[in-house]
Amino acid sequence: MAGFFSSLIIPVIVCAAGLIMIAGGSRFFDSFIKGAKTGLDTAVGLLPTLVALVCAVSMLNASGAVDFVCEKIAPAAAVLGIPEGLLPLLLTRPVSGRASTAVFSALLEKYGADSFEAFCASVIMGSTDTLIYVITVYFSAAGVRRSRHAFPVAIAVMIFGIFFSCLVCRLFFPRV
What we know:
Blueprint: H1 2-24, H2 28-63, H3 65-80, H4 87-92, H5 97-111, H6 116-127, H7 131-142, H8 150-172
Helix pairs in contact: 2-7, 5-6, 6-8
């Protein structure tokens, strides 16, 4: 019974919106077209930024730079209590959601879903975002030319999120 009513919610909302537009006498359709045109202009304006970002991420992954950096920072990460298996995720997460999802999937396959690395990675994936992508796309869409303190603050919050996620996993999953 609930499934039947839940399947009707979207059609009812669409029909109600259409009836309100027809009965309203205002120019709702013209407003819709104007909004769609503005959205399309924004998407076209973002396209060069997105192409440059995807190209940079592809070059970074293909160059082997992530593996090289992980190898160099592994001893410092071990001292800080960050498992070595998380390092590729920590380097790709700020740059690309797609790359970090692929790294996350590989991490789950390598260490298993019930490992400490998997728990930490899951918390990191759920509590952090792709900083460079978000800052680049949103600031580009808003026409912001200087990000000022946005990037350093975002990096600081991400670093805090990494340490806090490992701490939370150590507290809640001590036997793993």
